Fold this protein.
Amino acid sequence: MRRKPVLFKENRMKNDMKLKGWMQGFLGWPLYMGLLVLAMTAVAYVFDMKAGFICTILVVVYLVIAFWFYFAKRPLVMRELLLFAVNHAQIQKQLLSDLDVPYALLDEQGRVLWINKAFGMVVRKEKSLRKRITDLFPELSSHPFSESEEEAVWDVAYENRFYRLHLKNIYMPVDEEKEREGGFRVGLIAAYLFDETEKIQFQQEIENQKLVAGLIYLDNYEEALESIEEVRRSLLVALIDRKINKYFASIGGVVKKIEKDKYFIAIKKQYLENLTASRFSLLEDVKTVNIGNDMAVTLSIGLGMGGGSYIQNYEYARTAIDMALGRGGDQAVVKDGETINYYGGKSQSQEKNTRVKARVKAHALRELLETREKIFIMGHKIGDADSLGAAIGIYRACVTLNKKAHIVLNDITTSVRPVLERFMNNPDYPEDMFVRGERAVTLADDSALLVVVDVNRPSLTECSPLLGMIPTVVVLDHHRQTSDSIMGAVLSYVEPYASSACEMVAEILQYIGDNIRIRQAEADAMYSGIVIDTNNFMNKTGVRTFEAAAFLRRNGADVTRVRKIFRDSMSDYKAKAEAVRRAEIFENAFAISVCPAEGVESPTIIGAQAANELLNIIGIKASIVLTEFQNKIYLSARSIDEVNVQIIMEKLGGGGHMSVAGAQLKNCTVEEAKERVKETIKTMLDGGEI
């Protein structure tokens, strides 16, 4: 009665557990040797019957013993192997349990099935079982572990400590034969945790100790000193020095005055976060220095970091300060490698009374023009009166120097058509005075000169391929620079305080040569550019603006003729009136509207005019008009003096001036664009940026 279960167990063992491969051969080798012994016995019979008979008896005994061991002792061998396997598994399990590396097993859905002691100490065992790994480490929720991945690594955090988490797919075959026949496999995920808290802390400490180089320039040093009595000037300088030194001394920084209006600073990177959080309060603190000066002192800050050496950080700082000055000053620019961030810039840039810079730039431009036989002049896409007028002014300078010049112009808008009509089919001007971008590309070569007016961003130029084809580039612009400005220009004259590009070109023409005679049509074109960009001399108009207008007036510009050029058609006027009527007041200070594009040839121009009209409403600090045109949403932003619309448009991928700016949005509807504008304004108001 007791042997049957044993036999049953043995039979079941024989069926379930089969030795294969090398182990099967190892246990069967005595039987294989039996075949060899039989062969030897046969040979013995050939030589001696008596010897063969003795060998036969020995072989029989050998085979009986071999078969007995093979069949009778096989279950014992199997049992010993099984016992070894069980003991080995227990040892392995104990080793995994006591392993110093936190280790866990997950199912395919990420549920925790088993953890070792080290893992339990990290995540507290009583709360970890039957949880998903994403409950312990929410960082994994946004990056699911795919079954196709063999292994994946994430940086995770748990209770103020940082870990590197390794996840690896493992599979357990249920039955090899069934698996070969297309059966299923049980999938598990092994999870390993490596504590990197100290490593990250050391890395952060090293990062914090890195040097940030900086430059500080006083924007209007000479003008501020001239506005006070001479005996007080040294006191004003001393107060400014004290403000700057005290500000950076509070964070352990070093300040060295390198010129009368320039400073070099060095601080640790760990303090930069405090400066950016306060949005560089020094910019506003310096403005409070007043000992009778009529003009508040403003400064620009350029900081450089993220370079491979101290010298590279200093070069970044030089680039940053150039960006700050190119954007009108009164702001801080931080260049971290390829990333550039802007802070401040809330005040209008101060107009320079001296024309020394304009004279120097004019002489440099003349030298470049005299060394080239072919000159190309281009403005920005969807050109306006200012872009065209400035191009025509440079064209006149080229013709006076007996140089062949072409103005690159693709799309002719309603705002520039009346001006162009005076040059088209005019015997005084060649037919190739204006060429399209495709034609310019075929004419251009390495020996040509490219003059870019009224734009400093490559993506917005009328024909951007020319920038890569012509190595010698000159940039004349009055818009504030952005991080993607035209790089490598041999001559760059960017003055954000100027009202228009036509104003800058009018000044250049006065110094580029004594024999330049501007024709009446050219004077009208340049005068119209100033009128449009200043909104009839109401925006960004300074002393030099009126001097440029007077120069053009002396050369034949007619106010009445220009006014007739820019009269609106009835459909354009109705579209502008509709945009004003549909205006929505946001946050009690921002007028946001949509300009209809149906039946309007140049809706972007009408949108800009509507934005100007909205500023005439009491309580409106800034206006933004959206226009759908050519599968894009064009934004025209305007302000008077309280809001810097340039930084608003920069958040949306555009740029411009403090009071005049714009942007273009793609792959969105008008309503979606309007919501983006509102969200941007709301975020900037909450953050104190505007």
Q: What stands out?
A: Confidence is low (pLDDT under 50) at residues 1-17. Residues 21-47 form the longest helix (27 residues). The two ends are 96 Å apart (CA to CA).
